[in-house]
Design goal:
alpha+beta; 20-stranded mixed β-sheet; 32 strands
């Protein structure tokens, strides 16, 4: 086992820029940190392209035998296997009779001499000003996709395949430092298989944020995690849970997943000891920053010691990016997609051997950029796709494909902490359980480390130590550490009246930070400043359709025909714990609310868990 060294980000960046090489990184297992395998000091680069005038079959077989030998010598063979290499490894297909053009890239492997494993705290990145990207241009419009989807469906109805993973490329330009762009992408899509792989004299680079394990070998054990089934993350807790449940119960998504899981079982059965193929997980749902993914896990014991030729002949390419049956689906997709996928949906791997125990990791190269550089200008290709079955709908499939572009164009999120503002009185935290539940929910949504026991212990300490009536600013960072600050609450003889007016412009309902309480309050702070300029104490926020939501720091309540209501927050706004408490008690009801509802209300109050209710004077000028 290679020791892991903890180093500061500045030192890590300096080391990498000096040494170059390959980064294979896990940004998930330790929230707030990146576990990095840095491969350096290349001994040799081995590219291979298609040519009908070569004995490619023999060359490929010899090359992978050599990789096994290099690994046993203590070197680190790593590299990219292009999707088109499937013509060599899929049983019944042959490179010589393939439709590939001369010069089609098949693989690029680098044999490294050194590897260093380190862990570094994720930096507070400010690279946006150094990088710009053009608008991504999908090869297929919605109409063009629908045309190919209809052909795909016809093949499925004829029984030519049970599922086809229809894909197409997206092109765009990147200006600036590519290493910095990679770091930016990692803050937006944290995965266990992030790759930065410059090759071909650094003119080409693979930038990958793959969430999908192709296979992992440790000794005689091989683990695969086919990923099939996607749905977007929701902004609110309710929407996120709804999307989770939709994916979990979707007949179409489950059919796709079980089909690919069965394909993996069969593929592993060809190289496994009898009776050792086991489905460890089926239909597990894992949350990424922007999407929910359905994943299954299949393990086995290898019948013979690991060899590249044996394993790839059984598994490559991953069935999750093709369909079933594998050979027929592969050929059908070639006719439907009009060209090469290249790096996209191939595999990236690293390999090593310690004490005669092989350790191999390979990920499926989805969420992957293939770039070609000219100084600081980079031409980029990014593949997208989705699985099509007879249960599919073209509009939904196309939208699923485009949802995978979000990570490329969305801004880098600021470094933030999760925030709760609480009132402590007479040694008790008001609405403690509600605050804890909301904090835990937000931690799960953003992938923060969270310990319920640490939370309860910290709450207990606050209640023991804090005297009098105070306001607590309670924070959780990404690594799972709690800290808090206290401020005395002034005594009030009478309840204040809040001067309340309408904001000047609608909020952006796509901003996930408007639905969760964090220290990223830039929008709220801006609106508060505008309110003060207008002479208000606080502003009423509304969405693009004019639906009223909340204020910058309070929830709204109003009386209509003797009953109390609070606005629906489905399109934006923070569901306060005080509001939740009132709803559970049945004292208020949720109602979609307009400006006219407030203007005609019999009474209006605002409130939160620290201030309680406050009276309102509505200013309409």
């Amino acid at each position: 086992m290679i020791p892991i060294e903890s180093i500061p980000w500045i030192q890590f960046e300096e080391n990498y820029r000096n040494l170059g090489g390959l980064l294979f990184e896990d940004c998930v297992s330790e929230p707030g940190y990146t576990i990095c395998d840095h491969y350096s000091h290349p001994i040799e680069e081995i590219p291979l392209t298609f040519s009908r005038n070569q004995n490619l079959k023999g060359q490929i077989h010899s090359l992978f035998d050599r990789l096994d030998l290099e690994r046993k010598k203590g070197n680190y063979p790593c590299g990219i296997l292009n999707y088109e290499l499937g013509y060599h490894f899929i049983e019944g297909l042959d490179l010589e009779s393939s439709p590939l053009k001369e010069g089609t890239p098949l693989l690029h492997i680098t044999i490294y001499q050194n590897k260093k494993r380190s862990i570094y705290k994720n930096p507070d990145l400010k690279f946006d000003s150094l990088i710009s990207i053009s608008n991504p241009k999908p090869k297929w419009s919605k109409d063009e996709y629908t045309t190919q989807w209809e052909k795909t469906l016809e093949y499925l109805k004829l029984g030519e395949s049970y599922e086809l993973n229809l894909c197409f490329p997206v092109e765009f330009q990147i200006q600036g430092d590519l290493f910095s762009y990679y770091q930016n992408l990692k803050t937006k899509q944290k995965t266990k298989y992030s790759v930065f792989y410059p090759y071909d004299g650094k003119n080409k680079t693979i930038v990958s944020l793959s969430p999908e394990l192709f296979f992992e070998v440790n000794g005689e054990t091989i683990t695969t995690e086919p990923m099939k089934g996607t749905n977007v993350r929701g902004n609110t807790k309710e929407e996120d849970q709804k999307n989770f449940l939709h994916l979990q119960t979707s007949e179409k998504e489950r059919a796709e997943n079980v089909m690919i899981t069965d394909l993996y079982r069969n593929d592993l059965g060809r190289i496994a000891k009898q009776g050792t193929v086991v489905v460890e997980e089926l239909f597990s749902i894992r949350g990424l920053s922007t999407v929910w993914q359905m994943v299954s896990q299949v393990t086995a014991k290898l019948d013979k010691p690991f060899s590249w030729n044996t394993v790839l002949s059984s598994l490559f390419p991953s069935g999750s990016v093709i369909g079933a049956p594998k050979r027929n689906s592969y050929e059908l997709l070639r006719s439907l997609e009009f060209g090469n996928r290249g790096v996209y949906t191939g595999a990236f791997f690293t390999s090593e051997e310690t004490n005669h125990i092989p350790q191999i990791r390979a990920c499926v190269t989805i969420r992957t950029l293939e770039t070609e550089s000219n100084d600081k200008s980079h031409k980029a290709i990014y593949g997208i796709g989705s699985g099509v079955t007879v249960l599919s709908k073209p509009n939904e499939e196309y939208e699923e494909c485009l949802s995978k572009l979000k990570v490329l164009t969305s801004p880098v999120p600021p470094t933030f902490q999760i925030l709760e503002t609480m009132k402590v009185s007479n040694g008790k935290i008001f609405l403690k359980e509600h605050h804890g539940n909301r904090l835990e929910s937000t931690a799960k949504r953003f992938g923060f480390s969270f310990s319920k026991k640490k939370l309860e212990d910290t709450f207990h300490r606050i209640e023991l130590e804090v005297t009098g009536k105070v306001r607590i600013r309670f924070l959780l960072n990404e690594e799972g550490n709690f800290h808090w600050e206290k401020t005395p609450l002034p005594k009030r003889s009478i309840r204040p009246t809040i001067q309340l007016g309408f904001a000047k412009e609608p909020i952006n309902s796509n901003d996930v930070f408007l639905f969760h309480k964090t220290t990223n309050r830039g929008v709220y702070n801006h609106l508060t400043e505008v309110c003060k300029e207008l002479g208000f104490d606080d502003c009423i926020l509304f969405d693009k359709d004019g639906r009223v939501l909340e204020t910058t720091i309070r929830n709204l309540f109003y009386r209509e025909k003797g009953k109390w209501f609070t606005p629906s927050l489905e399109t934006g706004g923070l569901p306060g714990v005080f509001r939740e408490w009132l709803l559970k008690k049945g004292w208020v009801e949720v109602k979609p609310t307009t400006r006219d509802d407030l203007l005609q209300a019999e009474a209006i109050l605002v409130g939160n868990s620290v201030r309680g209710f406050e009276r309102v004077t509505l200013v309409t000028k």
